[in-house]
Design brief:
The chain is an alpha/beta fold and 291 residues long. Helices cover 22% and strands 9% of the residues. The protein has helices spanning 9-18, 48-59, 93-101, 178-195, 201-209, 235-240; strands spanning 77-80, 105-109, 129-133, 154-156, 161-164, 172-175. Helix 1 packs parallel to helix 4 (178-195), helix 2 runs parallel beside helix 3 and helix 4 crosses helix 5 (201-209). The protein is globular and about 75 Å long.
């Protein structure tokens, strides 16, 4: 599990993205089969240099001594449940831009302040994907104090949700805060990438924001608004909105005697509601003297 000693915050938040029990029978995260890495930037406080160091690590993971960088091992989404109450601080902006340029989706919690225009940084940054809570009494609201843009992008459950805990505690804890809303976005991104690994950061953002549930947010203003953005995340609908990565189906259609059929029709069944498949059949004549 993540190494942390501040209210098991790292353990609890990562469990909301991809947690499950040992035998896989119970999942509390949206992407329980995802692979993950972590970087420890502090405990209850996060020094600027440590955050930047971890940001660099995500671009090119290294060994424990900081050597042998492996950019091919970089994650495709980084789950960030932290922030600074001063939403105008800009020092992490290059880190987020570099992540996006490297194909890393930057998901950030907005903070738990109940006022307007108090979105924490880095969630306040224009290119950060900010996630609030549908419990609006405990979720920072936009506009961004950085540039006046609408924040958050989306919202998710953030009040009385189930999360994993650390050693010496019970198996699960009931927690609240946008720290636990944000991993729903990160987990949804992981699910989307498991369906199509070629999706760009922009395409991932579109898949999430275009499939939200907005009814519960409509009384806060038109879509998007500064309370819950485009609305509440719906991961199944987001999955249905993207195409499955193209693949290759190779086989030979024969009659009962094993003879090739030139004008064969192939039908695929049992694919499931979250996938689609288009098949183009091409007849390839057998080589002389063989199949």
């Amino acid at each position: 599990m993540p190494v942390d000693n501040y209210l098991w915050h790292g353990t609890r938040t990562i469990s909301r993205a991809l947690g499950r029990n040992a035998d896989g029978s119970v999942s509390i995260g949206l992407a329980p089969e995802a692979n993950w890495i972590s970087c420890r930037a502090g405990t209850s406080t996060l020094p600027s240099y440590a955050i930047l160091s971890c940001g660099q690590f995500m671009l090119a993971p290294t060994n424990r001594n900081g050597g042998i960088p492996r950019p091919e091992l970089r994650p495709q989404v980084v789950s960030n449940s932290y922030g600074n109450s001063d939403g105008t601080i800009t020092f992490l902006n290059p880190m987020i831009n570099n992540w996006i340029n490297a194909g890393i989706f930057p998901s950030f919690s907005v903070g738990n302040h109940s006022g307007t225009g108090v979105v924490e940084s880095p969630a306040s940054y224009h290119r950060a994907f900010a996630v609030g809570s549908v419990d609006l009494d405990n979720s920072a609201k936009g506009p961004s104090p950085m540039d006046g843009s609408i924040k958050p992008e989306v919202a998710s459950l953030g009040s009385q949700v189930q999360a994993a805990t650390g050693p010496g505690e019970s198996d699960y804890a009931i927690v609240s805060g946008t720290s636990y809303s944000q991993p729903d976005a990160a987990g949804t991104v992981a699910r989307l990438l498991s369906k199509n690994r070629s999706l760009t950061v922009g395409q991932l953002e579109m898949a999430i924001t275009s499939t939200t549930y907005f009814t519960s947010c409509a009384n806060q203003g038109p879509q998007p608004n500064n309370s819950c953005g485009w609305g509440e995340i719906r991961n199944v609908q987001a999955l249905n909105s993207v195409a499955t990565l193209n693949g290759t189906l190779v086989g030979r259609v024969t009659d009962a005697g094993g003879n090739g059929i030139a004008a064969a029709s192939v039908r695929v069944s049992g694919v499931g509601s979250l996938s689609s498949m288009n098949i183009r059949c091409v007849y390839v004549p057998p080589p002389a003297g063989g199949f």
